[in-house]
Amino acid sequence: MIPGVSYVYDFYNQFVDWLVQWANMDLFKTYKQLVQPNGSGDTSWAYTQLKLYLLLALFICLVWTAIDRKREHYNRLAYWLRIVLRYFLIFNCLGYGFAKVFLQQMPFPSLSQLATPLGDLLPMRLSWMFMGYSDTYQFFSGLMEVAAGLFLFFRRTSTFGTLLAAGIFANVFMMNISYDIPVKLYSLHLLLAAVLLLLFDYKRILHFFFSNRNADSSYLYDVRFPKKWMRIGRIVLKLFVLTTALVMPLVQGLFPGEPPAVSSPIPAGLYDVPLFIVNNDTVPITVNDTLRWRDVVFEANGIGSVNTTDTLFRQVYRRGYFNTKADSAKQTLAFSKSNWDFQTFDLFTLQYEMPDSNKVILKGKIRNDSVYAVLTKSKRHFQLAERQFHWLSEYNR
To answer: What pTM, to 2 d.p., does this model score?
Structure first.
């Protein structure tokens, strides 16, 4: 959002990518091809970057130690290291926290996900839907992260904020490890950053929590800036961080902007497919059939899924996902799919008829086959969609 920053950031990213690619090809020789971070932060590119950075850090540490071995301390550098780690945690606590507070990180399970058998889900998706199911729990989780970020922002409460952040990110890291969520490296970095900050303050923490002794005041962040421009610069930088880390996420959460409306003549819902004809032959539902549609879901946002393992669709958890675009004048429904890089590919276009509000007829060509499908609104009811809550429960449910 700041003019010129994107140019510098792009240049930096290009340089780092070149460095990581070189390290993989000529230094480590681990992977034939690196996959960039793509929503997953645990890709081959990310692990190669981590190995390269560790190697560089070790090399610089040894050289620096040999050259500057007579220096007694690095108090000033340690101060700036604490500042960097502290604000690294602040940005992440407030960023992730507000995303949960405004219920934007983990959405409620979609109709397609509700129609997916539990055993077909991967653990990551199961954990995401577990969080997204309860607005209350997601809000509470986000509120704790926001609280940690706010306590970290002030020097007097920074130790308590660090303790809170360490507990939060320990839980996040364990969830990522336990449910195979692909943010393991990043969450480990956040946890280690909090632990390192606590190590700077370990004597006071041991005295207070374990030795029942007086804990002296902390002077970790008490640094005097002798010159006026330094004091002004400190205030300006803190206001800048406050704006970018707190005000902007608040505004984006309160006024997220409505997604573009997707109009469709077919009402959203789950549809059974009692009749599926291919090339004038009625195809029955069989266990091993990979092309036959068993049910179809039309979501309200123009996305849908088919209960089929046909690889023509984007396969996720044994359901084929698609996007639709309707042409009411021609009464056609164009199907497409998107990949993980958000590229869209056209699949096919079918004519649709709606004899009544509970029945849809689709016909046309899929691949080179003539297809005629009858869809009827399903009466299936998902109890999970009720968001049940009971203070009084006479039995386990």
So the answer is: 0.89
